[in-house]
Structure formats: C-alpha cells, structure tokens
Amino acid sequence: MNLLAIESSCDDTGAAVVTDGREVRSNVVASQVPEHILYGGVVPEIASRRHCENISGVCKKALADADISLNQIDAIAVTAAPGLIGALLVGVNFAKGLSYSHNIPLVPVHHLRGHVASNYISNPDLEPPFLALVVSGGHTHLVNVKDYTTYEVIGRTRDDAAGEAMDKAARMLGLPYPGGLNMDKACVNGDAKKYQFPFPRVDGSEFDFSFSGMKTAAINLVHNKQQKGEPLDIENIGASYIKSVVKVLCAKSEKAMERYTTQRFVLAGGVSANSVLRREMAALCKKHSVKLYMPELRYCGDNAAMIGAQGYYEYQKGHIADINLNAYATMDIDIDFAR
C-alpha cells in the first residue's frame, strides 16, 4: 500500500511516499530555518506563507523521487493536529484537494503519533505495546502505546515542554535558532556539573513534567552574570542545563518503567536527537534490561515519512476523513479524529 504523506505543522514543509508503513520510498523536506534564524524562532505568519509556496513542489518531488504517479497512491496521509493552525491548514487543505480531485482516501494523522511512528521506519522489528517518551519543542509526553492507534497518556508537561525550555535557555546564551540543537553542539565539551538547576516536582502527579522553574533559573543566572559584567560561561552553563533537563526526563521515564511492565521503550520527537538524552536513556534502559528504540537522526525532526508510517496504521483501523476535515492547533494524542 502506497501513501503520499504531507507534513506542515510548524516550519518544515514535508512530503513523502511510504509503502506499508515501513518502507520510505522518498522523503522531501523544505526547511525554513535560514529565514527564521533572523527572528530567533518561528514566525507563524511567515511559516504559513512559505508552506503555501512550497507544498506543491515538495509533493511533486516526493512522487518523482519515488518514481510513482499520483494514480498509484492508495491514500493521502496528512498532519491535522497539533501545531501552528495556519501552517496546518495549508497541508490539510492541499491534501483535501488532492483527495477530492483524484478520489483518494484521506487519512488524518496526529503529529505526535507520527513522531512515535518514526521508530517503525528506523526499527523494522518494533511493534506495540511499548512505553514512549515523546519530547519536542511543544510537547513532553510519557505514553503507553497499547497498539498502533491506541494511546494512554501517563504523564505530560504542566507548562513548558523540554524542547521549548532548551530553546529559550539557548537564546538567553546567545545561541542561534534552533536553540536546543545548537546548544547541544556548542556545549558538548562543557562541565555539566559546574552549575546546579532545580529538579522540578509536580505534587500528586509523579509522571508529569514541569520545566518553567528550571528555565527561569537559567534566565536568572544569565541576567545575574550580565548585570555584574561577568562573561557568559556558555559552554558550562549549557552543558549543565542540558544535563538537568535530561535528568528529569530520565527520572520520570524510570518511574514509568518500574510501574508498567515493559520490554520496549521508545524515544521520539525532535529532542530525541539530543546526544545527552540518547546516551543517558541508553544507560537507563540497559540498567532495567529494557530494549531502547530511537529514530535515526534524520527522522527525529518534523518530516512526512513519519506521517506516512502512522497513516498506514490509521488507514488499517478505518480512520478515514472526508472533505470536512479540519485542522486543530491542540489535540491530545489519545484522541482519534472523528470518522
């Protein structure tokens, strides 16, 4: 079964052709990072306009790279939630037009389910059930994945997501967008024990996350040094901050491993590319004799291949949409789109 997949939830316009949920025949991404660097982050209006300009071209290239015609596509999968609403609407409406004009089934896909599904591409032996930690700029979730389309949220962030907390701290240190990625690169040799940041706890919710206090502590540290005229110790502050964020992610994940009997643990989302998180999570899973699955680095960020992978399983479950499909800026990962 061949799916044409479309992803436009933030600032990357993606299209891919995926066969049977596992084989990526093409994966095209038009990145807007060079433009958004000017503003230190994603500007939603600019992102939406660039999606309008790019989407037709990336879809044509994805079909060409896969050496396949639209007539050979069995379904069209598209990210419909969550994300920047203007950006999502570009992808959803383009997908609806293709679906309607060529009489091809339309499959709405939850963006975070797509991130989890990136592991199906990188790890052909992976099958549910498993526990997953989904970490990105806008989301931090611990999820019990019972089957390909059944998700139980164990824990989630109460405020800032881990990726957002890293991005904002990196910006305070003067590092360019994307902050988390550049902080990981710039601080790889830093002393991660030099600075201490608070370990946040959420009363009554042992699996929930909170990163706002840690982010505030980093901002206050930077401001204090600036007010005293002291040079910013970028490498060591960054390394210490990353270690603190990862410590929280691993601690909550370890609690979940102990509470839920699992033999498989999945790491997913843009922050899954972080070198410290990958290293520490590997050590944690080894400690508990749990097999760790991580996406290849090229599938960690937003891409359409992961949407095609999850779209295949949504289609098998009968999660088909019609011309009335809408986009949603927010939606829980455990909710199916209306059929």
Structure description:
The protein is built from 10 helices and 10 strands. With 339 residues, it is of the alpha/beta class. The chain folds into 2 domains: 2-116 and 299-316, ATPase, nucleotide binding domain (Nucleotidyltransferase, domain 5), CATH 3.30.420; 128-296, Nucleotidyltransferase, domain 5 (2-Layer Sandwich). The strands form 2 sheets. The chain has a 5-stranded mixed sheet, with helices on both faces. α5 runs antiparallel to α8 and α8 (234-259) runs parallel beside α9. The longest helix is centred in the C-terminal third of the chain and has 26 residues, at 234-259. The protein is globular. The model has no long low-confidence stretch (mean pLDDT 96).
Features:
339 residues; alpha/beta; Nucleotidyltransferase, domain 5; 2 domains; five-stranded mixed β-sheet; 10 helices; 10 strands
What layout of secondary structure does this protein have?
Blueprint: E1 2-7, E2 12-19, E3 23-31, H1 33-36, H2 44-65, E4 75-81, H3 85-102, E5 106-110, H4 111-122, E6 130-135, E7 140-147, E8 150-156, H5 162-172, H6 179-186, H7 212-227, H8 234-259, E9 264-268, H9 275-287, E10 291-293, H10 304-316
Helix pairs in contact: 2-3, 4-10, 5-6, 5-7, 5-8, 8-9
Main-sheet strand order equals 3-2-1-4-5
Q: Mind telling me which CATH architecture of the largest domain this is?
A: 2-Layer Sandwich
Order of helices and strands: EEEHHEHEHEEEHHHHEHEH
Number of strands: 10
Mean pLDDT: 96
